[in-house]
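Posting for a labmate who doesn't have an account.
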Amino acid sequence: MSAPVLQVRDLVVEYEGRGHAVQAVRGVSFDVHAGEVVALVGESGSGKSTTAHAVVGLLAGGGRVVGGSVRLHDGELVGLPPKAWQQVRGARIGLVPQDPGIALNPVARIGDQVAEVLRIHGRVRRAAAAQQAVEILRSVGLSDPEARARQYPHELSGGMRQRVLIGIALALEPSLVIADEPTSALDVTVQSRVLDLFDDLTARTGSAVLFITHDLAVAADRADRVVVMKDGEIVEEGLTAQVLGAPSHPYTRSLLAAAPQLAVRERVAPRAPSVGASPLLDVLSVSKTFRLPGHAGRTVQAVDDVSFSVPRGGAFGLVGESGSGKSTIARLVLQLTTPDSGTVLLDGAPVVDAAGRALLRRRSQLVHQNPFASLDPRFTVAKIIDEPLRSHRVGSRSQRRDRVVELLEQVALGAAYASRRPGELSGGQRQRVAIARALALEPDLLVLDEPTSALDVSVQAQILALLDRLRRDRALTYLFISHDLAVVRQVADRVGVLHDGRLVEVGPTADVFDHPQDPYTAELVGAIPGRRADLPVLTAAPLERSTR
């Protein structure tokens, strides 16, 4: 075998903390060869992104390589001076960053940003760079690339912006491409298209690819080899089929068991039977149109004549891509916005006045997508959970204090967490607090808007198991909104598929996913990552571990 394009040996990375150094990467070694895709996988804090940033010389402030070697072909990268790095990044190492929303300059036109990498490395002059930038945009599959080149990042969708970043990373055909969670912010179908494009372009150039991801299903589909990291160290590595098909390390096995795309999790029927139960929630022919700011007279049809029912004790999944109308329906259900037409009924009654809305606030609660943004950082956990009780004047101070402890126990945290603030909690712990707050008023309906999308796979599994247990124990009814079909399959009894504001398919979850009738549903199901991989399916019981 030829010499590796990238050779990492005994890499150690430290971050300077408060008076002491913290090792984020400890003795990591691996190779990446030309034309090979190596996936570096692990959860948040495993050291995978720090490793990638060390390779490309972009460690965050306070970070430094204190040991080991990183070689690109025959050249050592550790200790390279800043001016020398300017000749490496872009030309020899291309980087596709995680978030296209912040990686592009918001006040520079797309064409200028693509052309910049060509000019910086002296490949072409300014006029030629502008024309070549258009051809690069064409090569990454953007329609009307001349027009896209004149646009600003905010005028493009997330998938379009990610294609621009891929074009920039591959513009000079570097020998190594580092893709750091390049599609984690994208819908499943857009993710699939972007990764197909990335595969095609890197195969054409013969680049070595270091692919950083927490999504084992994506790694199973796209990688030749997998390197699993935990707590800054490599715990397992090898061919993808070997590592993900027959994992030897307990941590790898736990990651696979928690991945909804790669594992079949035991489902337990709710104690309150949903079959034949009367509807708790009825959404009847609702429509909603919004005016487009800055476009006089122009509107967008966010929701178009949507109807569905959720029986008491049932779980209804609402799936679709960004812009399909999912979150607008959640707002309509919770009366945070009013429909242009149609009706929302709770327990058979419409909400028609202030008293009805006040009752709705008690009987239905929202769990937000992002546990980092939905909790007030100034409040203690006790105050966060107590807030709805105080707002609705429920109980005395001592009764509310007891209720907070009870709710913390229900979400498997405990009274010790009452005095902590959100900044002292992990993502999974924050989401448990958000769920406890939602349960404070003993609602009948929980509207869960992408409640696990910001969480690592094992934490996600714990939250889903918690929601399953709470549903059974409390006969709760769920409206579960997500673009992750594998998660919805695990949670929902029935599912509705939204496309451009319309419900294109509704039915039992297994029927819709296994035998989709609408072409759009078939496209969504076909784009679920992990379906390409020829791996044995792991079976796991529900994970009900505490995140303490």
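Reply:
Got it, the structure tokens are right above this. The chain is about 35% helix and 25% strand.
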